[in-house]
Please model this.
Amino acid sequence: MPYGYNGKILHVNLTTGEFEVEEPSESFYRKYLGGSALNMYYLLKELPSNADPLGPDNVLALSVGVTTGAPVSGQSRMTSTAKSPLTGCIGDAQCGGFFPAEMKFAGFDAFIIKGKASKPVYLWVNDGQYELRDAGHLWGKITGEVEAALEEELGDKNIEVAQVGPAGEAGVRFSSIINMSNRANGRTGMGAVMGSKNLKAVVVRGKEGKKKFRMADKQAVINLARHGADIFPESDIAGLGKYGTAETTGAQHSVGGLPTYNFNSGVFEEWEKIDGATMYDTVLKGAAEGKQDLRGRDTCYSCTVRCKRVVEITEGPYKVDPHYGGPEYETTSTFGNYCGVSDLAAVSYANQLCNQYGMDTISCGATIAWAMECFENGKITAADTGGIELKFGNADAMVKMVEMIAGGEGFGKVLGMGSAAAAEEIGRGTEEYLITSHRQEAPAHMPQMKRSLGLIYAVNPFGADHESSEHDGVYEGRRVSYADRMDLLGLTKVQPRRSLGPEKVRFARLTQYFYSVMDSVNVCQFVFGPAWQLYGPQELQDLITHVTGWDMTIDELLAVGQRRVNMMRAFNAREGVDRAQDKLPEKMFKRALKGGKSDGIKVDREEFEAGLDEYYRQNDWDVETGVPTRHKLEELELGWVADQLNL
Model:
C-alpha cells in the first residue's frame, strides 16, 4: 500500500452516470504529486481542444496532494482545474478548509468529472463508496442552506460539501466552488463549470479513511508539526493568525502599493477603517464581548495558524452571519479601496454575498470597480445601471451591484461576464479602464510597484494571480531577505527596487516553479514557501519524504513545478493562446499613479517587453510565440504534450 496517497482516482461521467476507478502507478504520483500538475495531465489527455468551457466536453478535475491529510499545518488544500469560462484559457483554483483532508480520507486522490447530468445531481463519496444522487431540491439554494439540508439528509454533521451556489448555476463566469460556506476555489470560474454540468455538490466522508491514513515516518511528521507550532508565535506569519491577511493593508498603503480607485492610485486615505486591526477590534466574532485568545478565528484541518476570519455584525443595514466567514486582504481591497469604499460592514456583507451565492470576491469587486471608473468617466450611465449611481465611494451601490450580479439581474448580468467580456459587449471605450491580464481581473498587488509580479501577471497561464510567484520585496534592497531559504533556490543576488533585469526575471521564474509545485503538492502558501512563510523549501521536502518515503530533492520538486507551468502553457497554445495575450493592462503603461510614495509611477513598456523576452529565453520557450519548445517538453518528460502541439 502507498504512503500518504490512496492510489485511486475516481472518473465520473455525468452524462451516462458511469464510474471508473483508476489506480495509477507510484511513479505517476511522484511525477505529478497531485493537485494542479495531476489535473493538467488529465485535461491534456481527455479534454478536446476548442471545447466550450460551459459545454459537456469540458473536464473538471478536483484533486488533493500526496501529503493532504497529514497532521501538520498547511496541508489541507484541494485544486480544481478546467477550461475557464472567464478567460478561455486553462482555469485553476485552490481551496482550504476541511474538505480536502476529508476527501483524502474518503478514499480518493482525485475526481475527474466529464459530461453533463440531465438534471441536478450531487456526488456522494463515503469511505470508498460513491454514487450520484438527485439534487433538484438543492438547486437554487444558497450555500448554508445546502449544507444544512445535506447534513440532515445524510444523517451526518461531519460531512464536507464542495458546492456551487446560485451564481454558478446561472453561469456567472467568475463563480466559485465553495466549501464550509466560506472557503473558495475562487478564481477562473470553476463554479460556473461545475454548475454547467448540473453538478450541485461533491459531498465526502471518510469515517475509516483517517484511521487508515499511512505515513512512512509518522513521528517525523509529528515532530515537524510541533516545530511549526513552537516557532509560530515569533514567526513572520503570527500576525496572520490574529489580524488575518488584511494586516498588510497599512503596509501596502505606506509604500504606495494599495490599489485604489481601480488602480489609479496606490494610496487610500481611509485604509484604517478596513484593515485587519480594525476588523479585529470591531466586527470579528467575539469582539463585542472582549474575547481575546481566538477571537473571530477559524482554521483548516490540523493547522496551528488559524488565520481564517469570522465576522459577526448584528446591527445596522449590513448584518453578517459568522457562518459565512469574513473578508481577507484581497476582499477588503477589491470591495474596499478598489471601489473607494471604507465601510467595513458593507465590505463584510459583500463578502458574505459572494460566499452565499458562490462568487470570486477578487473578480467580483474588481469588475464593480472597473464599472465605477467607467461610470465616473461617462462611459456607463444610469440608463445602463438601472438608475444606480455607480460612483467610487458609494457603498450602497457596491453592495447592490453584488446582489444584482449574484441574481443575474439587470446590469448585474452584464458584469457577471467579467469586466473583459462586459467591455466587449458595452464598447464606448470602456476597455481603457480594464485591469485584466488573460481576461482575469488583477488582485490587490500592483505591477507598478512589483515589477516581477507584473511579469507573472502577464505570463501566468490562468491570468493575473498574486500567488503564482514570490513578491519582489524579498529580493530587493540592500540584502536578500530570508537568505538561507532563498539559497536553496539559487537566489543570492540582491536586486534594485522596482527592477526587471535578467536576475529579477530569474527570481520570478524560479519562485514561480516553487509556487507551482506547492499547488501540486497542495500546501498552503502562508505556511510553506521560499521566504517569509512558517516553513521553507527544506521543510516541504522533508514533509514529502516523511509522508511518502520518497527522498525527493528540491531540484526534483522544482521540476514538478516547471512541468505544471509548461503543461498549462501547452494547453493554452492548443487553444490558440500565445505571446500576444501575455500582457498587462494598457492603463498601467499609460497612466501614472496619483498620490503617496508611488505618485507618478507607471510600468515601463520597454523594460516589460525586454523582461518578457528574457523570461521566454530562460524557460527555453519560443521567444516569438511564448510556446514551450519540444526540447523543453521532452526534458520534462512531456514528449506526448509536444506531439499534441505538433512541435
User: Anything to note?
Assistant: The radius of gyration is 23 Å. The longest helix spans residues 554-574. Residues 3 and 214 are 5 Å apart (CA to CA). The chain has a mean pLDDT of 97.
